Amino acid sequence: MNKNKFMESYIENLQRITLKNFAETSDKDRYFALCDTIMELINQEWRNCKNRTRRSRKAYYFSAEFLVGRSLGNNLINLGIYDEVKEILSEIDIDFESIENFEDDAALGNGGLGRLAACFMDSAATQKLDMYGYGVRYREGLFKQKIENGFQVEGGDHWIKDGDGWSIRVESDSKIVKFRDQTVKAVPYDMPMLGFENEQVNTLRLWQAEPFEEFDFSYFNNFQYDKAVEEKNRAEDITRVLYPNDMQREGRVLRLKQQYFFCSASIQDMVSKYKRYFDHDLQFEDFSKYHIIQLNDTHPIIAIPELIRVLVDENGIEFERAVEITKNTFAFTNHTVLQEALESWPKDIMLEVCPRCFDIIKKLNENLVKEFKEKGLSEEAIDPYRIIRFDQVRMANLAIVMSKSVNGVAKLHTQILKDDTFKNWYKLMPEKFNNKTNGITPRRWLVYSNIKLSNFITEKLGSDDWKYDLTKLKDLEKYLDDEKTLEEINQIKFENKKELAKYILENEGISINPNSIFDIQVKRIHEYKRQHLNLLHIINLYHKLKKNPDMDFYPTTFILGGKAAPGYFRAKAIIKLANEIARVINNDEEVNDKIKVVFVNNYRVSYGEKLFPAADISEQISTAGKEASGTGNMKFMLNGALTLGTYDGANIEIFENAGVENNYLFGAKVEELNEIYDSYNPKEFYYKNEDIKDAVDTLLSGELNDNDSYMFLDIYNCLINPQGGEKADTYFVLKDFEDYKKTHEKINKEYSDRLTWARKSLKNIANAGYFSSDRTILEYAKDIWKL
Ligand code: HBZ
């Protein structure tokens, strides 16, 4: 990059888009001018990539969510010009940080599933894999969380209200999407996905719904302006908002419309390009030679009948042939074993949204049943496989029949899919099933967000090759017994903790001590993730410190954060509980130099970038068997935190790689929980264990105030006093409490041996290489996509 030229074009852009003199421009102006300048810089390479890959085999990642976060810093890092641009800006007296903070997160996802898609985009480009992302351009991303009087209050997230510096509207590639009762235009917005210092620019294409005709002039001419506007709104409604439920299927018509909308537009896009670029010898049999579609969970599965529809209805291909082509084109990833997340659509809703797709699904189901009957299976034996049963379309079954690959996202998770969730399918077609343990991009989650550690690693390894091949971190192990290195590690962590403390003071109004242990749990709020186990433990610890102020105890700051789905009462109760515990403890001068509790407001990607580098302890405490993988656990590990975790998801692989002795494993294993499932009685634990009783009773003792919301009663009930046929403590919080508490005591003791701790921290960093999404995406490319 030519520095002078960059500066020149930046100032030019700034003045052109604002019509202001430089001194009069605002942070917003300066931010958007910088986006423009960077987009100009990558334009050529982006076009080159598009042209070069026209006729190559590509992978298409279909996902209803891409949780991208901010792009400015990450793009500069990937272009290799982060430091230079910062310098250029400071030369003209612009503070980079304030421009950076102007950018709203692109929060087009709920949590792990959406963030994984974004990490995959980064890694695919970095590995020079031709992967295209297809998704939805929601006008409103995931709601903004405010905390009022300890309660979560949701606000809108109109993230592009000031503009969108990172997308190009490609009007000419618009598609028409037809619903039974409505026809809309799908307009693509393309975001560049930059590889790390390698000139590869892939595309994330997000579709926005607009009225087919901007204005219906018949209404207009009849002075029915409201009708005309109504139609416009009805079209725009489709991509107006991201549904905020994670791990919970959403059964509304509008949700299926969203899914069909982006899948139909994407399939049409692929087919029309195929016809355009391959037309001289067009053979649809070859379609699957050039396209492989990875389905990110059940949300995009409607793309399967849509491809058949386009092939059969619009291109005159015979049904059976279309089915064969389709079967070779799709692959399916599952992200959860929670039954409440598995999508099924009532026949009526499907008929209302996409009747032709329902027709096709029905035919696929009939063929399947026929095939099974010919094999001699009884009606009953066929039941678990049916795509349609009791007038419900079971999306996972549709995907499994019609895909060449089915994968889980961590070893244990894939095993559970085989043994349990999809066991019938596994018996029938074992060859389809495979594991792809998740990963995270080290560019965003270390190089960008933890500059100090990143520079330190480069210095120690004598090169920055590790940014391209994260397994190179292993070489850091040669410093395991080097005191100076270990002290430096502690120093870097301390600096990061000071920065976080400053940020938390500014944003949460709570002052925390950077010399205390930073124990962090950030993720969506869900019972299976057991934030309430964390909170019950804090309550009990607080009481112990009150009773015994001279107790040997290393000061600890417990930090929690995450959003609850707006309709998930119990998750919201957990948030209220966290805030109430924080209020009581932080205001109690007898203890607040020893423990503090912070519930960070509006946890999101850009907040995570500040939290992961500053953690000593990473809380990964889900009920064994329930967290498919987790990816936050990897972000903490890569930044040198020790995992306090159950034997679940990718925690297991973290323990395997970094050594269980360098982390803190606790709690029951899946096999044990399966065994005791029917006989489990949490009351036994409650009556036998004083600490448990103390913590649970506090929910109702009056010491904590839920402002008559009955929220704490709800948590109490779900643990030991189940209502209306519910099972008590389904997530085994009380069962695991004692072990959790003891493990915390161990942590608290061991933390004061600062060098031994640093050694463990280094062990984790050095062995985090496996968890790069570069590794994951290469496995998809090799085993499934054959790219
Ligand atoms: O996917 C998460 C898993 O819980 C987590 O363990 C894993 O690491 C991550 C990436 O594989 N699953 C989700 O985030 N699931 C959803 O977000 C979701 C959203 C809407 C739904 C269902 C699931 O209808």
UniProtKB/TrEMBL annotation:
<dbReference type="GO" id="GO:0005980">
    <property type="term" value="P:glycogen catabolic process"/>
</dbReference>
<dbReference type="InterPro" id="IPR000811">
    <property type="entry name" value="Glyco_trans_35"/>
</dbReference>
<dbReference type="GO" id="GO:0030170">
    <property type="term" value="F:pyridoxal phosphate binding"/>
</dbReference>
<dbReference type="InterPro" id="IPR035090">
    <property type="entry name" value="Pyridoxal_P_attach_site"/>
</dbReference>
<dbReference type="GO" id="GO:0005737">
    <property type="term" value="C:cytoplasm"/>
</dbReference>
<dbReference type="GO" id="GO:0008184">
    <property type="term" value="F:glycogen phosphorylase activity"/>
</dbReference>
<comment type="similarity">
    <text>Belongs to the glycogen phosphorylase family.</text>
</comment>
<comment type="function">
    <text>Allosteric enzyme that catalyzes the rate-limiting step in glycogen catabolism, the phosphorolytic cleavage of glycogen to produce glucose-1-phosphate, and plays a central role in maintaining cellular and organismal glucose homeostasis.</text>
</comment>
<comment type="function">
    <text>Phosphorylase is an important allosteric enzyme in carbohydrate metabolism. Enzymes from different sources differ in their regulatory mechanisms and in their natural substrates. However, all known phosphorylases share catalytic and structural properties.</text>
</comment>
<protein>
    <recommendedName>
        <fullName>Alpha-1,4 glucan phosphorylase</fullName>
        <ecNumber>2.4.1.1</ecNumber>
    </recommendedName>
</protein>
<keyword id="KW-0119">Carbohydrate metabolism</keyword>
<dbReference type="Pfam" id="PF00343">
    <property type="entry name" value="Phosphorylase"/>
</dbReference>
<keyword id="KW-0808">Transferase</keyword>
<dbReference type="InterPro" id="IPR011833">
    <property type="entry name" value="Glycg_phsphrylas"/>
</dbReference>
<keyword id="KW-0663">Pyridoxal phosphate</keyword>
<keyword id="KW-0021">Allosteric enzyme</keyword>
<keyword id="KW-0328">Glycosyltransferase</keyword>
<feature type="modified residue" description="N6-(pyridoxal phosphate)lysine">
    <location>
        <position position="635"/>
    </location>
</feature>
